[in-house]
Amino acid sequence: MKDAPRGIAAGIARSLQKATGEGYRLGYEIARDEAAFLALEAGRPDLAERIRALRPLPDRTARKG
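Below the sequence we write its predicted structure tokens.
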């Protein structure tokens, strides 16, 4: 019966890791959009375009290969 609590704990840890990674990704996208908006407001469409061109954060859970 000791394996069941470990399995549950491992499942919770995986869920938290996935949620944290998704939160970082969404936060980055929001910050990138806000920075582009502020650049436009400051009269710098060239800078806004460069900011929008920034790559998204990689998905840490995606398989590499």
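The helical segments are 3-41, 45-52.
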